[in-house]
Every structure is written in C-alpha cells, then in structure tokens.
C-alpha cells in the first residue's frame, strides 16, 4: 500500500511539473511577442509603460515571462502598440 501511495505522489508531482511547464511556455511566448512588437516600433520598456499607463516593472516582468499579466494590462499594452489583444496571444506552443 505504501508503494502505491509513493507512485501516486510521484505522478501528482509530475502532473504539477508538466502543467507548470505549459504555463511557463505560454508566458514565455507572450513575453517574446510583446517584446517583439515593442522593439518593432523602436519603443523602450519605459516608453511602452508610459503609453500603456502601466508600471515599467510590470512590462519588464511580463517580457521576462516571470508574471502572469492581467487581461486589463494586456489590453492596455495592445492598445499602446496599436494592435488587438488577440494578436498578442495568437501563437502556437
């Protein structure tokens, strides 16, 4: 019985790790897309933050893939970049 519980625990840990990997992949794709769109327009993170009326640290964290941005923040960024929000999240894993 104890062996069974250890196997279940390992599977649970693997599932959590796998799900986190997927989440991280999504955040990194989003980070790359925002960074690309910003650089394409020759904007600094500071200027984009000003245009989107968000904190520059938020832009930095989003572009580094270290935070899960709120929809409203993504909306503001997309608006500042003069694109639709769907363009920011239109990518394939």
Walk me through the structure.
The structure is a single chain. This protein has a single domain (2-88), classed as 434 Repressor (Amino-terminal Domain) (Orthogonal Bundle). 74% of the residues lie in helices and 0% in strands. The chain is built from five helices and no strands. The longest helix has 39 residues, at 2-40. It is elongated. The protein starts with a helix and ends in a 5-residue tail after the last helix. The mean pLDDT is 86.
Q: Please state the average pLDDT score.
A: 86
The largest sheet, given as strand count, sense and whether it forms a barrel, is: none
| Total number of strands | 0
Rg computed from alpha carbons, rounded to a whole number of angstroms: 18 Å
Q: What would CATH call the architecture? A: Orthogonal Bundle
Q: Quick one: CATH class? A: Mainly Alpha
- Estimate the strand proportion: under 5%
CATH-derived topology = 434 Repressor (Amino-terminal Domain)
Question: Superfamily at the CATH H level?
Answer: lambda repressor-like DNA-binding domains
Distance between the termini: 39 Å
Mass-distribution shape: elongated
Report the order of strands and helices.
Answer: HHHHH
Number of domains: 1
Q: What fraction, in percent, of the residue positions are helical?
A: over 70%
Which class of secondary structure composition applies to the elements? mainly alpha
Ranges with pLDDT <50 over ≥5 residues?
none
Number of helices: 5
